[in-house]
Amino acid sequence: MQILQKTISLKAKSRGFHLITDEILKAIPEIEDLKVGMIQVFIQHTSASLTINENADPTVRKDFEMWFNKAVPENDPDYKHDYEGSDDMPAHLKSVLLDTAVLIPIKNGQLALGTWQGIYLCEHRNYGGNRNVVLTAWGI
Q: What is the enclosing helix (H) or strand (E) of 52?
């Protein structure tokens, strides 16, 4: 069994939902050698998250951002954690609703994603900065 691990830094992205599948694949081309395996993509931040979803129609990403902003509004007077800005506590809550990691099967050297699936970086801060992601792949 092979085990691979890399940490990459994704360049800062604007608030919203961003497809990063190609960036992940470019960062860890060694998965091409795995016939059967898994890859975990883990983000080392609490105000951004990862998910897998529709990768074709960009309006899906806009609708995600709209829905999350309605579901978790900024400037809620009940928030106690507000010293890092009005987008900080909502960013943490949005991250809890999604997740900090995704786990994807590897089949014949490729991610076994569905036809319309892609990996998203969900940036919940207005100015989140670069985001560190740990990629861990294992298999045979």
A: strand 48-54
Contact yes or no for 16/61 (Cβ under 8 A): yes
Distances (CA, A) of 126 to 12, 48, 85, 105: 10, 11, 10, 32
Q: Are 129 and 15 in contact (CB under 8 A)?
A: no
- Decide: 133 and 44 in contact? Cβ < 8 Å: yes
Tokens at residue 54, please? 């529709």
| Global model pTM greater than 0.90 | yes
**Which has the closest alpha carbon to 51: 83, 9, 94, 82?**
94
**Distance from C-alpha of 130 to C-alpha of 100, rounded to nearest angstrom:** 15
Interacting residues of 35 by C-beta distance below 8 A, sequence separation 6+: 107, 108, 109, 139, 140
Is 60 a residue whose pLDDT tops 90? Answer: yes
Average pLDDT, the chain: 97
Residues in the chain: 140
